[in-house]
Amino acid sequence: MSANKKARTQPPYELLYWPGIPGRGEFIRLAFEAAGVSYRDVAVESEHAMAVINSLISQESTGSDGNPPAFAPPALRIPGEGKNGAPLLIYQTPSILSYLGNKLDLAGADEAEKAWVLSHTLTALDLNNEAHDTHHPIAVADYYQTQKEEALKKSKDFRQARVPKFLSFFERVLKGNHAQGQAKFLVGSSLTYADTSLWQVLDGLQFAFPKEIEARKKDYPLLFGTFYHSVKETKGIKEYLGSDRRQPYGMGIFRHYPELDRQ
Amino acid sequence: MSANKKARTQPPYELLYWPGIPGRGEFIRLAFEAAGVSYRDVAVESEHAMAVINSLISQESTGSDGNPPAFAPPALRIPGEGKNGAPLLIYQTPSILSYLGNKLDLAGADEAEKAWVLSHTLTALDLNNEAHDTHHPIAVADYYQTQKEEALKKSKDFRQARVPKFLSFFERVLKGNHAQGQAKFLVGSSLTYADTSLWQVLDGLQFAFPKEIEARKKDYPLLFGTFYHSVKETKGIKEYLGSDRRQPYGMGIFRHYPELDRQ
């Protein structure tokens, strides 16, 4: 994007997500913050965020401005980049990150790296989804209390089988890329949206399952000894995490129910 | 890819997936078959498929040939396209489809369409994953029989809340794109990997939940009246589905447990 165009459409990006939780919107926010690119965050900046999102995912919508409907937030709106100069609307976290990664120089250096960055991001988001399902194993729209018994079983399997499977995998990714990435980057020798996305999941897991992760950290020295702190200290990310733009965890994907953690 | 290069590296693509089930490998197969591009299918063509896949996802692997390790199959190996002329290895279904879609001309006509094709594919794969979780709501590595009680609850929510939510969404996508796609294509005016991927999920749902889908078909006239049949009759797809390369459903993602269907 030329400097002229950037100036003309400032702020060029609009993030549409639920207010009140970091949620899946956080993966998009971290990409913007790492790149130092401004964006309008409807969840934080608009008093009408709920209405905006409810309209976005209306069961009556067939899309608008040449865009398809969106299944769920987050969505990204980019003025002027759609059909015939209309706003472009993209939904689905990995699809937004894939599009945005290229624009923000966070997608990898060549075609192979771009593929791996997307692959690792999808794997981090799978772990994110499984963390969500620990407190909602039966029905996403029902209360935790109605499925607490099943949540206890699901969490046990998640902590004992799934968490080590995923963490071991990412430890090996860092090891395989160590000559280039120095355990600071999953792919190549610079930050990508795979790094910021995995970081968010590791951070959320430490909030939701503090005892479990604390007990396992020593098994993944690259992940928790180098990678996690390195991403957290990255310019842009560090400032963001210290600002009031970073929302606290709450009743979203990562919830701290002590009974679901290691006892 | 130039004609020369194509001839030189024939067969250029190698699909790595578990033998014996269509599974997530099927989304990759359908893209190849729709494009009429040959590929080596390890699950079908090799006697050592299990060993190949177990090696691919070994808990010791840090990758090879400059590629990262793979978390799970499917993976795609493309000779000569990796670092320094090594084979390129990509894992994660949506990442493979995104890469392959561009090569096979199944990804959409421009940047906006490419984003939507990936987004809709991710949504179809979310539905695919939720269908899997109906029979494995607690622990993916345990037997169905150990989590049957929870599966009955999960399936009820899936059939009553999730299936109509997803099907209504895709019906509206077809409606919104009707002027171009004539209800035959989700995006634009030609076949994409979003179409073949959604088709596979609709087909699997009819196998796993025949009563539920039969009862709901009338609510989604574009999806089941036009789209499903149109994709099935597509050149390449039609021949594939009539061949012995198409494997039957079994103990994979889509399983027909009558007790989980509408009673």
SSE topology:
The structure is a homodimer.
Chain A lengths: L2 H6 L5 E3 L8 H11 L4 E2 H4 L3 H8 L18 E4 L9 E4 L1 H12 L6 H25 L12 H29 L1 H4 L11 H16 L1 H7 L4 H12 L4 H5 L22
Parallel strand pairs in A: 1-2
Antiparallel strand pairs in A: 1-3, 3-4
Protein model, in words:
The structure is a homodimer of 263-residue chains. By secondary structure, chain A is mainly alpha-helical. Chain A folds into 2 domains: 14-102, Glutaredoxin, CATH 3.40.30.10; 106-233, Up-down Bundle (Glutathione S-transferase Yfyf (Class Pi), Chain A, domain 2). Chain A is built from 12 helices and 4 strands; from the N terminus they run αβαβααββαααααααα. Chain A has helices at 3-8, 25-35, 42-45, 49-56, 93-104, 111-135, 148-176, 178-181, 193-208, 210-216, 221-232, 237-241; strands spanning 14-16, 40-41, 75-78, 88-91. Chain A has a 4-stranded mixed beta sheet with strand order 2-1-3-4, sandwiched between helices. In chain A, β1 (14-16), α2 and β2 form a beta-alpha-beta unit. In chain A, α2 (25-35) runs parallel beside α5 and α9 (193-208) packs across α10 (210-216). Chain A starts with a helix and ends in a 22-residue tail after the last helix. Residues 1-10 of chain A have low confidence and may be disordered. Chains A, B: Residues 12-108 form the GST N-terminal domain. Chains A, B: This is Glutathione S-transferase. Chains A, B: One of its GO terms (biological process) is glutathione metabolic process. Chains A, B: Pfam families: GST_C_3 (PF14497). Chains A, B: Residues 110-251 form the GST C-terminal domain.
